[in-house]
């Protein structure tokens, strides 16, 4: 598949940057980030190599769940700006070569949404069947409760309606009924509205829950086939990125069967979880096994690889012993853990600020087959603020300078949407302005690595082979496309390692180190502690980036 063939599959070689507008930059001085602030920082994002923005929810909301409790799918939260401001953002991003995708939160609405308010009023109201109601609720299994700190059931009783309604998440977020064709039409109408404004696709929230209660007479994947078909007719190159935290055999089903007629991209949760296990143990084998276990997928589809996202760092696919190993290494205090299954920390603090290990982890991210997704602030090594309850601990303001509130907002700290962390990872120590001036900073390292990653399109659309390195601490893998092989080798130990790799014939090929530009005389590779190498092996008659 040539670069020309990949033109409509732009996400194959993208760098996706997830951000929450309310914590990115406060431009109007009210303590909350806004669209104008993001517009002012588009050049910063384009400058470090970001090619796609993923915006967390922007809609009007009571904000009891950071905007994931929507009251109007066609509006913009007035704290963030207006629809006009949003159009300016889209035009500015596209002028700088950036795509924009946004959260499509359609598993549930807020209980303040007009649909739910109408649904409560009468059993005959046309919106009643927009939600899932029962006279007697089924018994809830404890394992099915997403937020056990706040809920003890998937069903809540509504006094006015006189019935119980389903909510997989918080009780103030009633689930929509996708078995109702009118609901599915509403969702397509919402997607069409934002596509017409100029967004390039959607990250679909809580995908498995959308199909879980569709009813026995409905194909549980039928909705995604409908949605994909609708979106493709509106925008042939629009993306559907799904949040599906399932084991590989179940995960891959959401790509569809014809081929890839549902979601084009899925987060590789099994790989992410075992990446953290490998880092915790200094042992590459869990990650190698996870990569080998990932199934083949249609060429039109893609894995989204990530180290960290905006929620808790979920470890639910690990065994109890494996999860405990990660807890012991990266979150030994109970306050650092969440729901018994994850961590509410960012990577730099988990790794004790050791930049060798932090850079190793992101080098792994950038070389895994698929599309890398980073969470705002990762490029400068931001940490969490554990004084903020729950998952919100990782959603602190972006740290631009060493000034008050990290340069995020000029207001008093008590008026900021959330406080920045103190201590070692405070804005005094970690911020964009300082790192811009330091050529060896995390920010400048990230920019160089992103540039090299985007020049190495094979990593986004190639075929993976995991190598036997003969050393449990070292992961070696090759991604191949059109005869060009990219070899990546990572040492998860703090001790130097030398590995001899068998990668097949290199006759008639040029072999070069992608990070230092020099030739590679042989494959007895020497790696520093937490060291890594990116190597290109290409036929001599193939031209690629220098």
Summarize the helices and strands and which ones pair or pack:
Elements (H helix, E strand, L loop, with lengths): L15 E4 L15 H6 L1 H6 L4 E4 L27 H13 L3 E6 L9 H8 L11 E2 L20 E4 L4 E4 L14 H17 L3 E4 L2 H6 L9 H13 L4 E4 L5 H4 L13 E3 L1 H13 L3 H9 L8 E5 L6 E2 L5 H11 L6 E2 L3 E2 L3 H4 L4 H13 L3 E5 L56 H5 L5 H14 L2 H4 L1 E4 L7 E8 L2 E8 L5 E4 L8 E5 L10 E4 L4 E8 L7
Parallel strand pairs: 1-2, 1-14, 2-3, 3-7, 7-8, 8-9, 9-10, 10-14
Antiparallel strand pairs: 4-6, 5-6, 11-13, 12-13, 15-16, 16-17, 17-21, 18-20, 19-21
Helix pairs in contact: 5-7, 9-10, 9-11, 13-15
Using brief descriptors, characterize the structure shown.
single chain, 546 residues, alpha/beta, TIM Barrel, Oligo-1,6-glucosidase, domain 2, Immunoglobulin-like, 8-stranded parallel beta barrel, 5-stranded antiparallel beta sheet, 16 helices, 21 strands
CATH-scheme architecture of the domain at 1-100 and 371-460: Alpha-Beta Barrel
Could you name the ranges where pLDDT drops below 50 across 5 or more consecutive residues? Answer: none
CATH topology of the domain at 1-100 and 371-460: TIM Barrel
Task: State the separation between the terminal residues, measured CA to CA.
Answer: 21 Å
CATH class of the domain at 1-100 and 371-460: Alpha Beta
Sheet having the most strands: 8 strands, parallel, barrel
- Count of strand segments: 21
User: Whole-number average pLDDT?
Assistant: 94
Shape: globular
Going by helix content, strand content and strand pairing, the class is alpha/beta
Spatial strand arrangement across the major sheet? 1-2-3-7-8-9-10-14
CATH superfamily of the domain at 1-100 and 371-460: Glycosidases
Number of helices: 16
Helical proportion? 25-40%
Cα Rg: 23 Å
What proportion strand? 15-25%
């Amino acid at each position: 598949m040539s670069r020309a063939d990949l033109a409509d599959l732009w996400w194959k070689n993208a760098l996706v940057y997830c951000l929450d507008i309310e914590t990115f930059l406060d431009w109007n001085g009210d303590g909350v980030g806004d669209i104008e602030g993001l517009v002012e920082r588009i050049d910063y994002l384009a400058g470090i190599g970001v090619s796609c923005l993923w915006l967390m929810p922007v809609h009007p909301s009571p904000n009891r769940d950071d905007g994931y409790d929507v009251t109007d799918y066609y509006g913009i939260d007035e704290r963030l700006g207006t629809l006009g401001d949003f159009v300016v953002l889209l035009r500015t991003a596209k002028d700088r070569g950036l795509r924009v995708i946004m959260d499509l939160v359609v598993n549930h609405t807020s209980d303040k949404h007009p649909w739910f308010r109408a649904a409560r009023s009468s059993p005959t109201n046309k919106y009643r069947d927009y939600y899932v109601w029962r006279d007697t609720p089924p018994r809830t299994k404890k394992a099915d409760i997403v937020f056990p700190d706040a809920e003890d059931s998937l069903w809540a009783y509504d006094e006015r309606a006189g019935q119980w309604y389903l909510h997989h998440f918080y009780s103030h977020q009633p689930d929509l009924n996708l078995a109702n064709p009118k609901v599915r039409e509403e969702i397509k109408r919402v997607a069409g509205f934002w596509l017409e404004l100029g967004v390039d696709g959607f990250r679909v929230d809580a995908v498995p829950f959308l199909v879980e209660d569709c009813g026995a007479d409905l194909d549980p994947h039928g909705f995604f086939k409908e949605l994909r078909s609708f979106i493709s007719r509106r925008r042939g190159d629009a993306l559907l990125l799904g949040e599906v935290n399932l084991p590989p055999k179940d995960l891959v089903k959401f790509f569809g069967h014809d081929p890839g007629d549902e979601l084009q991209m899925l987060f590789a949760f099994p790989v992410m979880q075992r990446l953290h296990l490998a880092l915790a143990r200094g042992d590459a084998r869990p990650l190698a096994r996870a990569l080998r276990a990932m199934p083949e997928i249609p060429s039109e589809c893609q894995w989204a690889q990530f180290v960290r996202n905006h929620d808790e760092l979920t470890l639910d696919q690990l065994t109890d012993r494996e999860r405990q190993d990660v807890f012991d290494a990266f979150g030994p205090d109970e306050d650092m853990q969440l729901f018994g299954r994850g961590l509410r920390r960012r990577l730099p603090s988990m790794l004790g600020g050791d930049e060798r290990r932090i850079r190793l982890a992101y080098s792994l991210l950038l070389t895994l087959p698929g599309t890398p997704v980073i969470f705002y602030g990762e490029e400068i090594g931001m940490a969490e603020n554990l004084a903020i309850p729950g998952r919100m601990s990782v959603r602190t303001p972006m740290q631009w300078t060493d000034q008050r509130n990290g340069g995020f907002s000029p207001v008093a700290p008590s008026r900021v949407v959330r406080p920045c962390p103190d201590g070692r990872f405070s804005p005094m120590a970690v911020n964009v302005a300082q790192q811009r001036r330091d050529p060896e900073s995390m920010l400048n390292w990230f920019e160089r690595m992103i540039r090299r990653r985007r020049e190495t399109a094979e990593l986004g659309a190639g075929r993976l082979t995991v190598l036997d390195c003969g050393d449990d601490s070292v992961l070696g893998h090759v991604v191949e496309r059109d005869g060009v092989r990219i070899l990546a080798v990572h040492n998860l130990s703090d001790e130097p390692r030398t590995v001899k790799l068998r990668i097949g014939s290199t006759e008639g090929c040029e072999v070069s180190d992608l990070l230092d530009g020099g030739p590679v005389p042989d494959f007895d590779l020497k790696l520093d502690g937490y060291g890594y190498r990116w190597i290109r092996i290409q036929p001599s008659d193939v031209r690629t980036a220098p």
